[in-house]
Amino acid sequence: MSFDTDVNARFARRAWQAMEPVHAVTYFAAECREAHREVGLRGFWMGYFGARAAPLGAVAAGVVEAAFYNFHPAMVRRSVPDAWSYAAPEAVLRARAAGATAALRRVAPSASGAAAELVPLLARVVAVADGAGRPLFAANRDVPAPEDPVGALWQATTALREHRGDGHVALLAAEGLDGCEAHVLFAAAEGVPPATLRDNRGWSEDDWRAAAARLAARGLLDPAGAPTAEARALRAHLESRTDTLAVRPYRAALAPAEADRAVALLCVLADEILASGTIPFPNPMGLPARRDRTRGVPR
Questions:
Q1: Sign of CA dihedral 245, 12, 196, 212
Q2: Cβ contacts of residue 20 below 8 Å, gap of 6+?
Q3: Interval 175-204 mean pLDDT
Q4: Is the dihedral of CA 8, 10, 16, 18 positive or negative?
Q5: 132 — alpha (psi -120 to 50), left (phi > 0) or beta?
Q6: Which pLDDT score is estimated for 220?
Q7: SS3 of 275, please?
Q8: What's the N-to-C CA distance of the chain in angstroms?
């Protein structure tokens, strides 16, 4: 593999599709939900917001709204900052790592063996990745790696998926797409039921209609609500630029053969996780059931 432009894009997409299921056990696996409950977080969404935001510290709701980008502010504020009154971020970090480690050991039998090879490779990528303008990545980069190699593997994949997501959010903001608009456009282009995204991100039907009207006014949706050619070009641009930004630390840290090896190992883990049924499809993360899909949604 040589790092030319086309290969960069394909590699970045393969890396995301292989890495995202490894990270995503933290949202869907029973071990993770139980770990969040045991540490004191109440309900699924407080567990979600508390665990994902914990690397940032005991931040206010506005910080989470900005960093997560695509949730209705009221949904965030039902969980943050209350989460910190039930569990300190440091305790949440320990709980989420323990839950994710246990989940990966159960649903991905090859995780223990793969971690020995993967963790040093991914740690090099994390170390050279630029944290400027990437709050979730920078915060996760600074979380000490768990002593358990499988936990360290999960932490590294989490930092790198947040690196990609932070870059994607920056591009959405630069193009003037707010969180609801990004979901409306994605649902229209991919044929995803609107409720899958709308209800899991706290947007009302009125919010959804208003966002669709704004997109139509920009020429991105036609009168029937279908994406226009301009919209498809915009989405292609966003995904291409996201891939370009995401691949930089891999290119800087790894030789081409090492990068290929890392993704190959991650693909095995992803296949095991997907085969376990732990991650539902469709899902509000926009994660495709097959790694050869080229979909993309705010992460």
A1: positive
A2: 161, 270, 285, 287
A3: 95
A4: negative
A5: beta
A6: 98
A7: helix
A8: 27
Residues 128 and 98: beta-carbon distance below 8 Å: no
Integer Cα distance of 293 and 61 in angstroms: 34
Confidence of residue 6 (pLDDT cuts 50, 70, 90): low
Distance CA 139, CA 198 (A): 28
Q: What is the rounded CA–CA span in Å between residue 180 and residue 121?
A: 36
Non-local (6+) Cβ contacts of 154 within 8 A are 22, 23, 25, 26, 97, 100, 101, 104, 146
Is the pTM for the entire model greater than 0.90? yes
- Write phi, then psi, for 164 (nearest 5 degrees): -65, -45
- Does residue 245 carry a pLDDT above 80? yes
Contacts of 85 (CB under 8 A, 6+ apart): none
- CA gyration radius, the chain: 18
Peptide bond into 227 cis (omega under 30): no
Q: Are 100 and 32 contacting, i.e. CB atoms less than 8 angstroms apart?
A: yes
- Cβ(135)–Cβ(67) below 8 Å: yes
Length of the chain: 299
Task: Tell the residue number behind the tokens 């498809």, with chain if given.
Answer: 232
